[in-house]
Please model this.
Amino acid sequence: MQGVRIDLISEERLAQMPSMEKIRLILDNVREGTIVILESGLSPDEQSTLIEMTMQEIFPDQFSGIEIETYPSKQRGSGVLSRLMRGENETRRLTVIGPANQLKMIRKDRGLISAWVSGR
Amino acid sequence: MGISQTLSRILSTLFQSRTARIGIYGPPNAGKTTLANRIAHDWSGSVIGTTSEVPHETRRAARTGNITITGSNGRSITIDIVDTPGVTTRVDYKEFLEYGIEREEAIIRAREATEGVAEAMHWLREDIDGVIYMIDATLDPFAQVNIMMIGIIESRKLPVIIAANKIDLPDAAPQRIRNAFPQHPVVPVSCLDGTQIENLYEEMIRYFR
Model:
């Protein structure tokens, strides 16, 4: 049977994994054509590292990078207090990651991610 | 030289802070180098980099030092401007073929682009004190790279001004960007023709001082 593999990783499992293990797991799976869904997403530092490591692994005709989708962070105010608190209460939200050539975003807003997944 | 003057000079040397480095970040083709060139042209008479419709024209970060920007009320800031490669999570050399670039050259360009993205992230982690984040106002502001980068910048507690660029185009909708990122100042601007660029300068003086 042909199809696309989807791995859904729970918040509990993610919480037990060091950052680099998480990123390695994501990239290894996505490079194999798997769609990875993280219940609680990645921290900003992990996202930054994921971008860097993705760039290092791009190779012509084999891997062109990742498509990653998550909801926008929850709105905070624009007042002085909010600016002082910036980054203190980071929110991790459900995140979908897949190969750039297989996962395409159709529509997205604050509460909806609509994506198209194709086979390899 | 008196003791107090000597002490003052030593203390000044010890605690002298370097010029703030303001990074221009954003996805490819948002107008980062166009803004960097406009700032450099308006305030130092120089040019930082070349621009092109082909994505990833800027593949190395470029710093221009000691640019003094003066506002309408006489206040000023002196900063270094760092023009960075466009940030993305994908680079496919085949995209460059559509612009008439040969395969071999496209592959080299793609490799340089991936190195440039990693370099931009390094700068953000180590050497940037404030950010002008460029968004093309004709496009969807909820693009994932915008959400991720704004989150990363916030987590580093860096001051950020969002430049809603390309307001000279009929499809530009800077209000969508304000709605998407209400927690940050958003300045509609056209870096190409200079429309409202003075508003961005005033905001930079106010926000990066």
Q: What stands out?
A: Chain B is about 40% helix and 20% strand. The mean pLDDT of chain B is 89. The two ends of chain B are 32 Å apart (CA to CA).
